[in-house]
TrEMBL record:
Protein name listed in UniProt: TnpA transposase
InterPro entries: Transpos_ISL3, Transposase_DDE
Species assigned in the record: Legionella santicrucis
Signal peptide: none
Xref: Pfam families: DDE_Tnp_ISL3
């Protein structure tokens, strides 16, 4: 686990993490920062949006405007 959500801290952690090339699936929220880090450090992994965040987005009134 990484303390905080700052991009630099996440990069530092992910750079030293072994076995990144073997990760197949990553379940995460829809943060564009997280998505770009996952694509960079886990090039073989498929990104799956976690259900909590998907449901929360659908329940928001601006869902059709932003995603539909």
């Amino acid at each position: 686990m990484v303390r905080g959500r700052r991009e630099q801290k996440l990069k530092e952690y992910l750079q030293q993490l072994p076995g990144k090339e073997r990760v197949k699936v990553i379940c995460m929220d829809l943060s564009s920062t997280y998505r770009s880090l996952v694509k960079k450090y886990f090039p073989n992994a498929m990104i799956v949006a976690d259900r909590f965040h998907v449901i929360r987005l659908i329940q928001r009134k601006d869902w059709p405007k932003n995603y539909g």
